[in-house]
């Protein structure tokens, strides 16, 4: 069924765009075959690595596939719009659409896809935000945390990209670095070199990480052990208490809700904050945002999540919101708790397009609130 769904835009473009063109039939057949081939990108990814989540093609090929798939998708949308606009005139007056209009549509679709891929694959810009925390000790007023999430280090986001992200992150001078899951796409043998720059992440109070759902696709235990070996503090249904000149702040982290499907412990917020000191604000790291109301009910002050990639494309984000209890991008107030859903540092290489939902390096400044 997913294969058929991904083929539909190509079939629409072939029948409504390619076939009406004034081109020789052999060329139309070649174009149609190419589009059908592109529509099966995830199938080719599975052949290359055994998983749709880790295409092992050269980076240029991964970029080309994403650009071509995006072009087909945007061209299909433009074709539907054209049909809606011109259908009455075609039925009543026999009006036909010129090839010039169709070629212009193709150019617009190709350019839009190129912009989308570029927005998806760049080293993210900085996003500065502030959160007021009730009960925040004065010692933590002005405290800065850098959130990274959904890096999806892979053939699309390789060593050089990871190094650039680390250099930019370290240059921001945050007190604490928090990584909210989906660091990789691929097994440890394939990705160990690409992920190596993360070893150099530096913050005064350390680097903390939780798993995302993609860690469970590629030997969860091996990756968690590797993150720890790289100097990151793994929070799997546990917490740490930060002390700053007598003031305290709790950083808690839970596993991903997909964990039980692989025989691993699922998220347990009660365990994660159990025995935490009373009256101390809790910042929770949870890869997926959909259980935010449960976190609020447990007294969490601030939840940091990712997973949604911000919905990637304006309009498409509404579908992502429906799958995540309405939480898809940015700041939300949830029953007295603040939830922040990060658009992501990187992106899954199976659909690397961003339009209107930019990636981000997110520097968070904590402020005392009454």
How would you summarize what this structure contains?
The protein is an alpha/beta fold and 370 residues long.
Could you walk me through the main structural features you see in this protein, from its secondary elements to its overall organization?
The chain is an alpha/beta fold. It folds into two domains: 2-121, no CATH class; 126-369, Purple Acid Phosphatase, chain A, domain 2. 39% of the residues lie in helices and 18% in strands. It is built from eleven helices and twelve strands. It has helices spanning 2-18, 25-39, 41-49, 59-93, 99-121, 159-170, 188-195, 220-229, 269-273, 292-297, 317-322; strands spanning 126-134, 144-148, 176-180, 207-210, 233-234, 238-244, 247-253, 282-285, 302-305, 330-334, 337-341, 361-369. Strands 1-12-2-3-4-5 form a six-stranded mixed sheet, with helices on one face. The protein has a six-stranded mixed sheet with strand order 6-7-8-9-11-10. α9 (269-273) links the parallel β7 and β8. α1 (2-18) runs antiparallel to α2. The longest helix is centred in the N-terminal third of the chain and has 35 residues, at 59-93. 45% of the residues are buried. The model has no long low-confidence stretch (mean pLDDT 94).
Q: Which stretches are low in confidence, meaning pLDDT under 50 for 5 or more residues running? A: none
- If you consult CATH, what is the topology of the largest domain? Purple Acid Phosphatase, chain A, domain 2
The CATH architecture of the largest domain can be given as 4-Layer Sandwich
CATH class label of the largest domain:
Alpha Beta
Number of domains: 2
Tell me the total number of β-strands: 12
The H-and-E topology, N to C, reads as HHHHHEEHEHEHEEEHEHEHEEE
The general outline is elongated
State the secondary-structure class: alpha/beta
Q: Give the % helix.
A: 25-40%
Q: Can you count the helices? A: 11
Largest sheet: 6 strands, mixed
The CATH homologous superfamily of the largest domain is named Metallo-dependent phosphatases
Radius of gyration: 23 Å
